[in-house]
Amino acid sequence: MWNTVYLFIEQYKNKRMNKNQIKYDLKFDVVVIGAGHAGIEAANMAAEIGAKCAVITLPGVEIASAPCNPAVGGVAKGQVVREIDALGGLMGKLADMAGIQYRTLNSSRGVAVQSTRVQIDKKKYSENAARVLSQKENITIIRDNVVEVLKLFEDDAGFTLTTVTGKNYYSKRVVVTAGTFLDGKLHFGPRKEVGGRVFSPKGNSLGEIFSKASLKTFRFKTGTPARLVSSSVDTSLMEEQPSDSLTRNFSSSSHPFTRQLPQVSCYMTWTNSETMRIIRENKGRSPIFNGDIVAIGPRYCPSIEDKGNRYPDRDNHHVFVEPEGLSLETFYPNGLSTSLPVEVQEQFLRTIKGFERAEIAIPGYAVEYDVFDATRLRQTLESKDIPGLYFAGQINGTSGYEEAAGQGVVAGANAALAVFERAPLLLSRFDSYIAVMIDDIISNHRDEPYRLFTARSENRLYLREDNVVLRMYPYRKQLGINSFIDEYSKRFVSECELLAQLCDRQVYSAKYANERFLSAGYGAIPGESMRLADLLRQSHLDPVTTLESECLHFGVEFDFDILRCVSIEKRYEGYVAMMSEQNRKMMNMDNTRIDWKLLSDSTNVSFECRLRIEKIRPETFGQLRLIEGIRAATLAVAAGKLY
Amino acid sequence: MALFSDDPIIACSSSLASSAAIAVVRISGFADLSELVPFLSCPVEKIIPRKVFYTMIVDKLGKYSSKGEEVDSALGTFFKAPHSYNGENILELSIHGNRINVQRVLQLFCSEGKIRPAVAGEFTYRALKNRKLTLSQVEGLDLLLNATSSYVLEQGQGILQGEVNRSYLELEKRFKELRVSIEINIDFVEDVGEEKGLEIFKNNFLAFTLAMKSLYQRALAPINYLHSPDVVFVGPTNAGKSTLFNRLLRMNRSIVSPVAGTTRDYVSESLFVEGGQHFRLIDTAGIRATHLTGEIEQEGIKRSLDVVANAFFKVLVLNPFDIANGGDSGKDFAGITFDLLVLTHNDKENFTKKTSEQSFKEYLSKIKFHELLLCGPIGPAMGGTAVSVGPIGPEFSEEFLKLLLAKYALITKESPIILERHRQLIRKIHKHTLELQKLCVIGVESVDEFIDFAVAATIVDLIGQDISELIGVVSPDHVLKSIFDNFCIGK
C-alpha cells in the first residue's frame, strides 16, 4: 500500500511549534492509510457518520483486492459479512455484485450454524469497490505514499501526515490498515523477494516504524497456492459443485436470490500418493522446513508440505478448484498452499487428476510480515498508547478479508464518533462475531494469525445469519443515520415482532390440531392444545417451511427473510434463553469497569498477574477474565474490589 | 486478606500437638535462596534442588537472640519453583521435634519481618493459585487431611492423585474429544467431510457416555455413614455391653487408641481393623436411664437416641433373664431397627419357668433386628438359625467383625463419591448427557442421519461449564488446538 513508510509518532513535548507555521494542503477528520478490506470499510463508516474522510493508498495498487482465495464468507465469516452489511458496511454489497458461485455451508448441521460463502470475481470486486468508494460523499481517495505521521502539538489530538510527493495533510484521527505489507518477505522455495504480495511493493518493518513509540510487533507467516491457467485444467475429471440458487444474497439491499453475474461452478479433486511422495521428497527445499521461515503460520491453513509432514499416512487431501473470475483466466487450487520451488510445484501439481497438463500462471509462495501487538488496543481499536490512532485488519494479527473488514467498520465508526465527541460503538460478544474477534485479539497475544470460528463464541445459537438485522439494529440505530439500511432494519424488526406475537398467540385446540397437522403432513403430535411456537419447536419438522405453510394456511403474508428469522428464533428460543441466562450473569460481571492501575499496584495481586495486567491494561472485568494466566485469586480481588 | 499477599510464609508442617523426634518446617514463596542466607550456616550456592543437605540454623544477624547463636541443626531439601508442591520456591527443614524448639525456629525465621507465619491451608491455597492442584484436588486434600473414616481418607487420596482424580481426568479428556467432534461438525465439515465428521462425533459421544456411566453410579450411591461409620451399643446396664465393647477392643488384630468421649452421654473408642477400615465404637452408657429426671438428663437421653438412630451399625445387647424377670421394658428403642441383637449371660441357668420364657419371647417379638448373635447355651430355646458363639471371647469378635464388615462392604461397593458438590455436578452432567442422547436419537429429519449440531453444541457447552467446575477450564483455544493437532484442517 505504500513504498517506504515512516510513521513516526512523536510527542514533541519540548518543541514549541506554531500551528499556523505549517501549511496544510488539506484537512480531514479521519484519514485511513490503506485501502484494503479494512481500509474501505473504515472510510465508508467514518464518511456515513459525517466525518470528512481521506483514504491514502499507493498509486497503481488495486483497492480491496483479494490476494488469496477468491471467496467471501464461510463458517462464522458469513455471519461477519452480514453483520457488516447490517451495520451499513460495504462487504456484503460488493460480494453480491461480484458473486459467481453461492453456497450454504453446514446445510446438514442444523439451521443455526449455517453460513454463506460466495466465490467472487476478483477483478470486478476491486473495480466495484473503487467505484463505490469514489462515489461516496465525504471521501477523498488520495493516490500517494505516506512517509511520516507526526503528532505535533501537545494541546491538539490531531496528526500531521506527510507524503512522498511533499504534501502535508492534517487529520483529527488516523486509522492504520496496512495489511501484510509491513516488512513483507516472499518465499518461492529458495528464491526470496521483498513485498507484501506478489507483484507489489513492501513497506518498512513495524519495528522501525514504531520504534519511537516503542510499540511491540510480532512476525507472522501465511501462504498461498499457485494459480493455474484455466484452459490448462480439465474440470471434466473432477467433482462439480454448482452454485446454489437457494442461498440468500449477502446484502439486505440486494434482491434475496437474484444474482448480478452469471453463475459458474467450483470443482473438487484430490491429491494422491504420487503427489505426496514428490512433496515429501522435496521437504528440505521448503523454506518452512529448512529454517528460512521462522515466523508462525496459521494451523488451520497449513501448506501442503505441512500436511505431508504431519500426516505421513494420508495421501488424499481435498483440492477445491475455484475460478478467480469470469474474465480472469485462472483457477485457485484451494488446499495446495505451498512455498516449494516453482519446478517442484509444477511437478506435484501435474500428478493430480485434472491437472495433468496444468500450467502455472503465478507460483505459490509464503509471505512473512509484521503484525502489531493488538493487546495494546481498546475495544474501539484505538491505541491505548497513542490516543487518536486506530488499527484495523491483518496488521492486528488476524487473517481473512471478513475479519479485516469487520475491524474496519468498528475502527472507522469509532474514529468518526470520537471526532464528534459522541459515545463509542461497542459491540458485545454475546450478540456479534465482530465483537468476539475484537475481544479475543485485544485480550490475549495470539501465537498465530487469528481466524474466527463459531467455536470461539459462547452464544452461537444466537449469532446466526438469519437474525443479523435484529442483532445489529440497536447498534446501527445508535449511529443516528437515516439511509436504506435503517429503513429496512426498522421495518424488519417490527415485522419480526408481529410474526413472533402471532407464533405465541396462535393456539391450536387439541381437536383442531390433530386435523390440521395430519392434513399438513406434520404427523400426529401428541398433547393437548398447542401454540404455533410449540409446533415450530418439534424436532422432526423444518421450522422455516412449517411456519411458511402455516402462514399460508392462515392467509397472512410475510417476507421469506422474516419467516426464516422468526421460525428459527422460535425453534431455539428455549436454548437461547438458557444460554443467555448463563451469559447474562457473565456479561453483567464482564461489563463492570475495573481500575487496572489500582489492580496492578495492589499488593493483593501476585507479581505475575500484575505484569500481565500492566501489559494488557484491561478496562472491564470481562477483559481481565480473558487474559491468559490470570489467576482465580486476582479475579476474586477484582470482583470484590479488594484492590 | 493475608491469604492474598504473596509474602514468603513459614509453618511447621508436621504435628505440633506433641513433641516428636523430628518436626518438618516449610518455607514457601521466597524469590531466591539468598533471602535465607541470614539463617543458614550452609552456603546457599551449594544447595542443589531436591538434594538433601545438612545445615545449622543460625541467627547470623542477632535479631532474634542477642548473641547470634546457633538455634538448631537440620536436614534441608530445596524445591525450586515451579517444580514444587505449590509451584513456589520451597525449603523444607527437618529439625528436632521438641515443641519449644520448633517455636524458636519459626520465630527466628519471622524475626526479620520478611517471612510471616502461614495461615492454615495457605500452602495448598498457593498450589491452587499456581494451578499445581485443581479445586477438586484441594478438596481431596482436605478430605485426606481431615478424614474421620477410612473411606473418606481413601477417597481423599483418590481425588488428590488416585483413582477418583483419574476418572475425572478421563471424563475431562472424553469431554474435550466430544467438544472437538462437535466443532469439527460445525467449523470444519468441509475439511473433514460430513460422514467422517458424524462418525467421529458418534464414537466420541459413546466414549463420553461410558466414562460418565460409572461416575454417575458413584454419584448416586448413598453416602450415609461413610464420613463416620459409627458402631453403637445400647442395652440395659449389666447386659454385657462393656464386656462386648472391651472384648472387641482387645482383639489381637485391632489397635485401640483412646479418644475422649465427645459428650458426657457416651464414650467412644476408635477401632482399626486389619485391612485399614476404621470404625468408631460408641457405648451409650447413659441411655438406659428412664428413672433419671431433670431437663439435662432428658436432653442427654435424647441426644443419645439420636446417636443410635444415625449410627451405621446398631447393636442391642440384652440379658434375657433380666427381661424375663421384668427388668426392662425396652420402650426407648421402638422404631429403631438393629443390625445386630446380642443375647448375653450365657453363664446363667436356662429359663426355669415357662412363663419367663414366654414373656421373653413376647418381648423379643417387638424388637426389630437383622442379625442375632447368642452368647451362651440358650440357643436351642430360642430356636431359629441364630449362631451361638459361646462365651464372649475371640469367636464372638470374629463373628461380630464378619457382620460389621459385610455391611461396610455393602455401602462401599459402588465406591460412592463423597463430596456433595461433586455429586451434584456429576448428576447435572448426566442430565445434560441424556438430553444430548435424546437429541441424537430423535432428531431424524430425513433419510440421512441428522443431528442439529447447533443444539448439540449448546448442550455440550452446558456440560462444559459443569466439567470446568469439577476439574478445571476447557477453553475454546484448547479445543481448537486439539483439532489442529489431530485433524488435517485447511482447504
Main β-sheet description of chain B:
8 strands, mixed
Query: CATH top level of the largest domain in chain B?
Result: Alpha Beta
Low-confidence runs of chain B: 252-264, 288-292, 377-386, 442-448
Quickly count the domains of chain A: 4
- Spans where pLDDT lies below 50 across 5 or more residues of chain A: 1-15, 206-211
Full CATH superfamily name of the largest domain in chain A: FAD/NAD(P)-binding domain
CATH homologous superfamily classification of the largest domain in chain B: P-loop containing nucleotide triphosphate hydrolases
How many domains would you count in the coordinates of chain B? 3
Mean pLDDT of chain B: 77
H/E element order of chain B: EEEEEHEHHHHHHEHEEEHEHEHEHEHHHH
Number of helices of chain B: 16
Number of helical segments with 4 or more residues of chain A:
20
Q: Could you name the CATH topology of the largest domain in chain B?
A: Rossmann fold
Q: Radius of gyration of chain A in whole Å, from Cα?
A: 26 Å
Give the strand content of chain B. Answer: 15-25%
Strand line-up of the largest beta sheet of chain B: 8-9-10-7-11-12-13-14
Instruction: Please tell me what the overall shape of chain B is.
Output: flat
Helix/strand-derived category of chain B reads alpha/beta
CATH architecture of the largest domain in chain B: 3-Layer(aba) Sandwich
Average per-residue pLDDT of chain A, rounded, comes to 87
